[in-house]
Amino acid sequence: MGKKILVLTGSPLRGGNSDLLADALIRGAQASGHTAVKFEAGIKKIGGCTACDRCWEDGHACIEKDDFHELEPLLESCDVMVFCAPVYWMGFPAQMKAAIDKLYAYGGKGGLRPLAVKESALLLCGGDPTAPEYDYVSQGYQMIIEYLGWKDKGIVWQGGANETGSIAPAALQKAESLGKSL
Ligand SMILES: Cc1cc2nc3c(=O)[nH]c(=O)nc-3n(C[C@H](O)[C@H](O)[C@H](O)COP(=O)(O)O)c2cc1C
Questions:
Q1: How many domains is the chain partitioned into structurally?
Q2: Structure pTM?
Protein backbone atom coordinates (compact mmCIF):
# COMPACT_ATOMS: atom_id res chain seq x y z
CA MET A 1 0.00 0.00 0.00
CA GLY A 2 1.26 3.47 -0.83
CA LYS A 3 2.42 5.80 1.89
CA LYS A 4 1.03 9.24 2.62
CA ILE A 5 3.77 11.81 2.23
CA LEU A 6 3.64 15.37 3.49
CA VAL A 7 6.14 17.76 1.96
CA LEU A 8 6.59 20.83 4.14
CA THR A 9 8.19 23.56 2.05
CA GLY A 10 9.82 26.67 3.43
CA SER A 11 10.41 29.06 0.54
CA PRO A 12 8.17 32.06 -0.07
CA LEU A 13 8.91 31.62 -3.80
CA ARG A 14 6.43 29.33 -5.53
CA GLY A 15 8.28 27.78 -8.48
CA GLY A 16 11.61 28.54 -6.83
CA ASN A 17 14.54 26.16 -6.47
CA SER A 18 13.35 24.29 -3.40
CA ASP A 19 9.82 24.16 -4.81
CA LEU A 20 11.26 22.42 -7.89
CA LEU A 21 13.03 19.95 -5.58
CA ALA A 22 9.72 19.32 -3.79
CA ASP A 23 7.90 18.72 -7.08
CA ALA A 24 10.61 16.32 -8.24
CA LEU A 25 10.36 14.30 -5.02
CA ILE A 26 6.57 14.26 -5.33
CA ARG A 27 6.83 12.97 -8.94
CA GLY A 28 9.06 10.15 -7.76
CA ALA A 29 6.84 9.30 -4.82
CA GLN A 30 3.75 9.18 -7.02
CA ALA A 31 5.57 6.95 -9.52
CA SER A 32 6.05 4.48 -6.64
CA GLY A 33 2.34 4.53 -5.80
CA HIS A 34 2.51 6.91 -2.84
CA THR A 35 0.28 9.92 -2.36
CA ALA A 36 1.99 13.21 -1.66
CA VAL A 37 0.76 16.60 -0.61
CA LYS A 38 2.72 19.84 -0.37
CA PHE A 39 2.16 22.41 2.36
CA GLU A 40 3.80 25.74 1.57
CA ALA A 41 4.78 27.02 5.00
CA GLY A 42 6.79 29.79 3.32
CA ILE A 43 3.61 31.23 1.83
CA LYS A 44 1.16 30.50 4.64
CA LYS A 45 0.92 32.68 7.71
CA ILE A 46 2.15 30.81 10.77
CA GLY A 47 3.34 32.66 13.84
CA GLY A 48 6.04 31.38 16.14
CA CYS A 49 5.29 29.30 19.21
CA THR A 50 4.52 31.61 22.13
CA ALA A 51 5.29 28.94 24.76
CA CYS A 52 1.81 29.48 26.24
CA ASP A 53 1.53 25.74 26.98
CA ARG A 54 -2.10 25.82 25.91
CA CYS A 55 -1.69 23.19 23.14
CA TRP A 56 -4.94 21.28 22.46
CA GLU A 57 -6.96 23.50 24.81
CA ASP A 58 -9.49 24.31 22.09
CA GLY A 59 -9.17 21.00 20.21
CA HIS A 60 -6.43 22.31 17.91
CA ALA A 61 -2.75 21.57 18.38
CA CYS A 62 -2.19 25.32 18.66
CA ILE A 63 -4.70 27.79 20.06
CA GLU A 64 -3.37 30.64 17.86
CA LYS A 65 -5.72 31.18 14.93
CA ASP A 66 -3.24 30.98 12.08
CA ASP A 67 -2.57 28.70 9.10
CA PHE A 68 -1.06 26.01 11.34
CA HIS A 69 -4.67 24.85 11.68
CA GLU A 70 -4.52 23.84 7.96
CA LEU A 71 -1.32 21.90 8.57
CA GLU A 72 -2.61 19.96 11.57
CA PRO A 73 -4.79 17.42 9.68
CA LEU A 74 -1.97 16.85 7.15
CA LEU A 75 0.52 16.17 9.94
CA GLU A 76 -1.91 13.87 11.68
CA SER A 77 -2.59 11.75 8.57
CA CYS A 78 0.86 11.32 6.99
CA ASP A 79 3.34 8.45 7.27
CA VAL A 80 6.35 10.34 5.95
CA MET A 81 7.30 13.96 6.41
CA VAL A 82 9.68 15.67 4.03
CA PHE A 83 11.27 19.01 4.91
CA CYS A 84 12.18 21.04 1.83
CA ALA A 85 13.77 24.47 2.09
CA PRO A 86 16.32 26.98 0.89
CA VAL A 87 19.04 27.71 3.42
CA TYR A 88 18.45 31.14 4.98
CA TRP A 89 21.25 32.48 7.15
CA MET A 90 22.63 29.01 7.84
CA GLY A 91 19.27 27.63 8.89
CA PHE A 92 15.66 26.99 7.92
CA PRO A 93 13.63 30.00 6.74
CA ALA A 94 11.72 31.60 9.63
CA GLN A 95 8.34 30.67 8.14
CA MET A 96 9.27 27.01 8.17
CA LYS A 97 10.91 27.19 11.58
CA ALA A 98 7.64 28.58 12.96
CA ALA A 99 5.82 25.47 11.72
CA ILE A 100 8.54 23.20 13.12
CA ASP A 101 8.41 24.94 16.51
CA LYS A 102 4.68 24.20 16.69
CA LEU A 103 5.40 20.46 16.44
CA TYR A 104 5.85 20.94 20.19
CA ALA A 105 2.12 20.22 20.45
CA TYR A 106 2.80 16.71 19.21
CA GLY A 107 6.16 15.69 20.50
CA GLY A 108 7.53 18.31 22.83
CA LYS A 109 8.31 17.89 26.48
CA GLY A 110 5.47 15.92 28.01
CA GLY A 111 5.02 14.00 24.73
CA LEU A 112 1.63 15.56 24.16
CA ARG A 113 0.16 13.68 21.16
CA PRO A 114 2.83 11.87 19.16
CA LEU A 115 2.29 11.78 15.40
CA ALA A 116 2.02 8.54 13.43
CA VAL A 117 4.90 9.71 11.19
CA LYS A 118 7.60 7.06 10.97
CA GLU A 119 10.01 8.38 8.37
CA SER A 120 11.41 11.61 7.10
CA ALA A 121 13.62 13.17 4.44
CA LEU A 122 15.29 16.52 3.78
CA LEU A 123 15.70 18.58 0.60
CA LEU A 124 17.89 21.68 0.80
CA CYS A 125 19.24 24.26 -1.61
CA GLY A 126 21.32 27.39 -1.28
CA GLY A 127 23.45 29.89 -3.08
CA ASP A 128 26.85 28.88 -1.76
CA PRO A 129 28.31 26.10 -3.90
CA THR A 130 29.62 24.00 -1.05
CA ALA A 131 29.50 25.27 2.45
CA PRO A 132 29.21 24.09 6.03
CA GLU A 133 25.62 25.33 6.28
CA TYR A 134 24.27 22.29 4.45
CA ASP A 135 25.90 20.03 7.03
CA TYR A 136 24.76 22.31 9.81
CA VAL A 137 21.10 22.34 8.69
CA SER A 138 21.22 18.59 8.02
CA GLN A 139 22.52 17.98 11.55
CA GLY A 140 19.70 20.09 12.97
CA TYR A 141 17.19 18.07 10.93
CA GLN A 142 18.74 14.80 12.15
CA MET A 143 18.44 15.92 15.75
CA ILE A 144 14.83 17.00 15.29
CA ILE A 145 13.74 13.69 13.79
CA GLU A 146 15.74 11.67 16.31
CA TYR A 147 13.89 13.51 19.06
CA LEU A 148 10.59 12.73 17.35
CA GLY A 149 11.55 9.08 16.80
CA TRP A 150 11.45 9.22 13.00
CA LYS A 151 13.82 7.40 10.65
CA ASP A 152 15.77 9.37 8.06
CA LYS A 153 15.18 8.17 4.49
CA GLY A 154 17.65 10.51 2.84
CA ILE A 155 19.00 14.00 2.38
CA VAL A 156 19.49 15.82 -0.92
CA TRP A 157 21.20 19.20 -0.89
CA GLN A 158 22.26 21.39 -3.78
CA GLY A 159 24.40 24.51 -3.62
CA GLY A 160 25.22 27.07 -6.31
CA ALA A 161 21.55 27.95 -6.81
CA ASN A 162 21.39 31.69 -6.36
CA GLU A 163 18.98 32.52 -9.16
CA THR A 164 15.42 31.22 -9.26
CA GLY A 165 15.34 28.23 -11.58
CA SER A 166 19.08 27.61 -11.37
CA ILE A 167 18.79 24.39 -9.39
CA ALA A 168 20.99 21.73 -10.99
CA PRO A 169 19.06 19.09 -12.99
CA ALA A 170 21.14 16.42 -11.21
CA ALA A 171 19.67 17.57 -7.88
CA LEU A 172 16.15 17.26 -9.27
CA GLN A 173 16.97 13.72 -10.38
CA LYS A 174 18.28 12.90 -6.91
CA ALA A 175 15.12 14.31 -5.33
CA GLU A 176 12.96 12.28 -7.72
CA SER A 177 14.93 9.11 -6.89
CA LEU A 178 14.55 9.82 -3.18
CA GLY A 179 10.80 10.18 -3.72
CA LYS A 180 10.71 6.83 -5.53
CA SER A 181 12.61 5.17 -2.70
CA LEU A 182 10.31 6.33 0.08
C1 LIG B 1 17.19 35.76 3.46
C2 LIG B 1 18.07 34.85 2.66
C3 LIG B 1 19.13 34.19 3.30
C4 LIG B 1 19.93 33.31 2.59
N5 LIG B 1 20.95 32.66 3.26
C6 LIG B 1 21.71 31.77 2.59
C7 LIG B 1 22.75 31.05 3.26
O8 LIG B 1 22.96 31.17 4.46
N9 LIG B 1 23.48 30.16 2.54
C10 LIG B 1 23.26 29.96 1.20
O11 LIG B 1 23.96 29.14 0.60
N12 LIG B 1 22.27 30.61 0.53
C13 LIG B 1 21.50 31.52 1.20
N14 LIG B 1 20.49 32.18 0.54
C15 LIG B 1 20.23 31.88 -0.88
C16 LIG B 1 19.09 30.90 -1.06
O17 LIG B 1 19.20 29.78 -0.20
C18 LIG B 1 19.07 30.40 -2.52
O19 LIG B 1 18.90 31.48 -3.40
C20 LIG B 1 18.02 29.34 -2.76
O21 LIG B 1 18.26 28.67 -3.98
C22 LIG B 1 16.61 29.95 -2.82
O23 LIG B 1 15.68 28.90 -2.92
P24 LIG B 1 14.15 29.16 -3.34
O25 LIG B 1 14.16 29.57 -4.80
O26 LIG B 1 13.48 27.85 -3.13
O27 LIG B 1 13.62 30.22 -2.43
C28 LIG B 1 19.69 33.08 1.21
C29 LIG B 1 18.64 33.76 0.58
C30 LIG B 1 17.84 34.64 1.29
C31 LIG B 1 16.69 35.34 0.59
A1: 1
A2: 0.97
